[in-house]
Design a protein that fits this description.
Layout: H1 16-37, H2 42-45, H3 57-88, H4 91-109, E1 117-119, E2 122-124, H5 126-142, H6 145-167, H7 187-190, H8 192-205
Antiparallel strand pairs: 1-2
Helix pairs in contact: 1-8, 3-6, 4-5
Length: 209
Amino acid sequence: MAMPISNPQSESQPPIATAAFRNFLSRLTSTVRHGLSQRRPWLELLDRSSFSRPDSLTEAATRIRRNYTYFRINYISLLALSLAFSLLSHPFSLLVLLSLLAAWLFLYAFRPSDQPVVVAGRTFSDRETLGILVVSTIVVVFLTSVGSLLISALLVGLAVVCAHGAFRMPEDLFLDDQEPLNTGFMSFLGGAASSSAASAAASAVAARV
C-alpha cells in the first residue's frame, strides 16, 4: 500500500499579504496616535482673547501660515472631522468609499501575486484588475455624488481653518525648537509609515510591475 506523500508547497500557509496588511495597519495606527499626541490644547485653539480682525490680506496670510505651523495637527483633525461628518450623514457614499478602498487593498495592493482574481469562473489578469479598479475609482469620484461630497466637505473644513488662522493672533504662540515640522499625520506621507506601506505591499506588487 503506497503511503501518501505530502507536498510542503501544497500545505496551506498564511499568505504574506495578510501579515503585510496587518503590519501596515499597525504602523498606520501608531502614526495616527503619535500625531494626535502632538496636537495643541483645544482651549488654546479657541481662546477668545486671542482673536482680532487682520488689518490686511497680507497680515491674514501671515497669520494663517504661522497658525498652521503651530496648530497643524488640530487643523488636520478639523478637516478629518469635516470629512467624517459628511460621510456619516451620507451612509451610501461612505459604503461606496469603503468598498472601493477594500477592493484596492484586497484585490491589488495586498493580494498575493500567485492568487489571481476569479469572478464567475473568469480569471482576471493583474492588468485587467488594475484597469477595472482605476476605472471604478474614476467613476466613483468624478461621476457620482461621492466626489462632490468629498470636495464640499474639504472646502468647508478649509474655510473653517483659514478663518481661524486669519483671525487668531499668533504673537503668543511659540513652536518648540526641537520639534520637527514634518511630524504628526503628515509624517505618514514621507516618513516611517510610508516606508512601512512600501515594504508591506512590495511582495504583492513587485510581481505585477
